[in-house]
Structure formats: structure tokens, C-alpha cells
Amino acid sequence: MITSTTGLYLTAFLVGLLGGVHCLSMCGGLVGSLTAGLDPRIRRDPWRMAPYQLLYNLARIAGYATAGALFGGLGALLLQLDAFQIMQRALYALAGVVMILLGLYLGGWWRLIAVVERAGAHLWRRIEPFGRRLLPVRTPLQAAALGYLWAWIPCGLVYSVLITAVSTGHPLDGALVMLAFGAGTLPNLLGIGLLAGAAARIAERVWVRQVAGLLVIGFGVHALWSLFG
């Protein structure tokens, strides 16, 4: 089991980075909507477009941190229970299983994780209309608001790391775990916005998705081995 907070942050970052091909498929259209709503003169100039993309992604990561703080707070409540150690181990085990399922999904071998994503669809249906009102994006503030809202889109990758955030047993640690995860996703999603379809075309290659899937499966297997090995 990962016992240091540094280990948790590193794992969350690497899961975000390696699972970035999933981010491209889940959020690529959303980032494309952001880009399409900008003034054509801004779209043609990557340097002028960069602040919008950066604000969008920083706000998205802030949304992840908010969720991490909430789930870390839930862990703090569970810490008050006599059986917290058992609960903590169970949460680590669940996170490991979800990562394995996520890796299978990324590699295109099994799509069971899609069921987990659909579980968050009820919340997203309540949030998504607010995002639509911000389109088309005309100002940096709109880009930031849109990014924060879209942090709550149903995503098995996010859910697997949120389970780890619960196991920290502290709101601040939970927020930092999700910040590390969000930082890992940043290169891929900035690549969509600034490099148009180039990043998406790379992510569509079967071998890229399969390598990412195998590596994420490795994280899940390691987590379970640390617990039961």
C-alpha cells in the first residue's frame, strides 16, 4: 500500500498523464467548443489563444481540487470510525480495481468502466446546462467558468483518483492528490487546444492507447499487490 503522501501525489500525476488519451476522447469536443467560440483572429494566433486555454485548464484543475477536498473531508469523517483502517484498505483496493478496469478501457479490451462513468451522469445532467450558457466563449472569464464546470463531467479516470483522495483522510491532502492528477492531464488537454487535431490523431493510434492502458493496469496491480502481496 502507498503509505506516503508523496507517493500518492506521484501516482495521481502519472495516472493523469498516462490516462491522457482518455481525456482526449472525453474532453476533446469540449475544448474544441471553447476554441470554436473564440474570435477568428485569436484562433489563428496560438499566442493569443494560449491564455484562454490556460485559464480553462487551470479552472478545470481547480474543480478537481474542490472535489478532492470534499472527498478528503469524507475520509476525515470516516477516520472517526473505529473501523477506519479496514475502510482505508478497502478504498485502496477499490482504487486498484478501478485502475485496472480503466486500463482495460483505455486499451480497448473491456468497456466495463463506462458503467462507472454513467453513474455520474445524473449530476452532470444538472450541471451541463450551465456550461451551455457560457458558449460561445468570448472572454477569459467565460473560459475559466467553463473549465470549472467541466471538471465535473462523468469520468472513470477522475473517479478512480477520487477514491484515493478519500483514503487520505484529510481535505487538504485530498485536494492536493487531485491537483497532482490535474497537472498530469494538462499536457494532453493543452495539446488539443493549441495543436488542433494533432494531439487527438496521436491518441487515436491503437498502440498509444494500449501502452497507456497497460501502464495504468500496472498501477492498479501494484496497489493490490502492496495490499495483499
Automatic annotation (TrEMBL):
Lineage: Bacteria, Pseudomonadati, Pseudomonadota, Gammaproteobacteria, Chromatiales
Organism: Thiocapsa imhoffii
UniProt KW Thylakoid keyword: no
InterPro entries noted in UniProt: UreH-like_TM_dom (IPR039447)
Transmembrane feature ranges: 12-38, 58-79, 91-116, 141-163, 175-199, 211-228
A Pfam family recorded for this sequence: DsbD_2
Entry keyword Transmembrane helix: yes
Urease accessory protein UreH-like transmembrane domain location: 11-221
Alphabetical keyword list: Membrane, Transmembrane, Transmembrane helix
This protein's name: Urease accessory protein UreH-like transmembrane domain-containing protein
